[in-house]
Write a structure and sequence with these properties.
Helix content: 40-55%
Mean pLDDT: 89
Distance between the termini: 35 Å
Structural class: alpha/beta
Largest sheet: 7 strands, mixed
Strand order of the largest sheet: 1-9-8-2-5-3-4
Radius of gyration: 20 Å
């Protein structure tokens, strides 16, 4: 049983976060990017546990055996996510409906617009790649009312603060656990729902191939698509800033569809659930391979493995 949270500690952490955010927002974006580079170096040095996870993930995903090469790659991952943090902090002041073309390019926008303007509900699936927080944020900026599924942060004060950013342009948040009726309401009213589809789902998840290894994946994404006949679009928000350098002050992203999956194609198939799960996972993998340093290699995506495989490894 988890210990009860301390309201005092939670509020103290919230105040610390607010102070740090205020300081960073008071800086120019150029100065904040320099801070991001320094922060990336520091976290890389002290965060040994996640650094080792990333090194192992990259070895298995790309067969990178050279330690120096993997080390350079992991440093780039830390730089990307620290730069992403600064962009999130500054984007409310830098981005508005009149200058979005300066910072975003819509790639192959016709199928995206056709799907969003249809009279059917839409399920947008993304992953921990690029700047996943900006995808739904920008769609809402364009006038599309999106509902994003996310697990609330443990600290209620920090969660409320972060929620204000996420909902600033009109996007609404749905709790991953506890908001199922609201999710049903969104789909029944032909709404747009956004979710991440690359999280480890434990031993009971649907195992599909991801970078050559079985990865436990939540079944709910495909189940929602099948039950409510919801077309799915795999969508990513990839940084393509000047020279491709994370932390560049000339930040720019491409919003691009990776695949469009209509559950009608799988009607009557006994393998519909694993087939759809495999298909959107494969689409995410293709997008990640174009800019692998922008993927969140720091988390244990392959934490759980099929039982048969685990038993075979134990016997060996």
């Amino acid at each position: 049983m988890s210990k009860p949270r301390s309201n005092t500690k939670d509020f103290a952490v919230y105040l610390a976060v607010r102070i740090v955010v205020c300081i960073l927002q008071a800086m120019s974006f150029r100065a904040a990017c320099k801070v991001a580079n320094g922060l990336a170096w520091l976290i890389y040095k002290i965060d040994r546990r996640h650094r080792l996870v990333a090194l192992d993930n990259l070895h298995h995903a790309f067969g990178i055996g050279d330690e120096a090469e993997r080390d350079r790659f992991v440093r780039g991952v830390y730089r990307h996510f620290c730069a992403m943090l600064m962009e999130i902090i500054h984007v409310p002041r830098l981005l508005h409906p009149h200058n979005w073309k300066k910072h975003f390019t819509l790639v192959d926008s016709a199928p995206l617009a056709d799907l969003l303007l249809t009279d059917r509900p839409v399920l947008v699936v993304s992953g921990h790649f690029g700047n996943w927080e900006l995808g739904g944020y920008v769609l809402a900026l364009f006038g599309f009312r999106t509902h994003a599924i996310a697990r609330p942060l443990d600290n209620p004060y920090v969660d409320a603060f972060f929620r204000r950013f996420r909902e600033r342009t009109g996007q609404k948040m749905l709790a991953k656990h506890g908001d199922f009726e609201r999710m049903q309401g969104v789909l029944n009213s032909n709404g747009i729902m956004v979710t991440l589809g690359d999280q480890d789902a434990g031993q009971k998840g649907q195992f599909v191939d991801f970078f050559g290894r079985p990865a436990s994946t939540h079944k709910a994404v495909a189940l929602l698509a099948l039950e409510y006949n919801v077309p799915m679009m795999v969508l990513t928000c990839t940084r393509v800033s000047a020279a491709g350098a994370p932390g560049s002050t000339n930040w720019h992203y491409e919003i691009a569809p990776g695949d469009v999956i209509d559950p009608e194609e799988y009607k009557g198939r006994p393998d519909a659930l694993p087939a759809i799960t495999e298909r959107f996972t494969s689409a995410l993998e293709r997008m990640i391979r174009r800019a692998p340093e922008q993927y969140f290699w720091l988390h244990r995506r392959w934490k759980h493995q099929p039982k048969a495989k685990r038993n075979k490894q134990a016997a060996a």
